[in-house]
Amino acid sequence: MSTEQNVQTVKDFFAAIGRGDRDGLPALVGEDIEWIIPGEGWPLAGTHRGHAGLADLLQKASKTMETSTEPREYVAQGDRVLVVGVATGKIKATNKPFKDDWVFDITVQNGKLTKIREYIDTQALARASQMDAPGPA
To answer: Which terminus of the chain, N or C, has less C-beta within 10 A?
Structure first.
């Protein structure tokens, strides 16, 4: 696949995420997709593998947060596409808003995403996820 085709595949992936098209996503990702989200102590962190891992990740995300993701720039070389963007939203459990500037490092092989590594503002998400300490009794 050409670099331009790889970028278009990644754009199609983000468009499907934005539409909430969970049924269309498996056609865009490899069966052995690996999605790595750094961090500890929050439900989305970890390594998510395969179509089942992707479905589980998206289900957890929809249960824990309301978010809008905006890819702003695509930088590609060969089978790698870096996407620079921003996500805004709120954590449902705390009702706290967040703004997360991020970079996704995505590998595309044979027209499908095979690896996603997120570089995110873990502090912004941790702050929004933190329950306020109870006040004095």
So the answer is: C
Banded pLDDT at 70 (limits 50, 70, 90): very high
Helix, strand, or coil (residue 74): strand
Write down the pTM of the prediction.
Answer: 0.88
d(CA 108, CA 25): 14
Distance CA 28, CA 108 (A): 10
Ranked by mean pLDDT, the top range of 35-44, 71-80, 91-100 is 71-80
Residues 6+ apart with CB under 8 A from 57: 35, 37, 44, 48
- Closest by CA to 83, choosing from 119, 42, 46, is 119
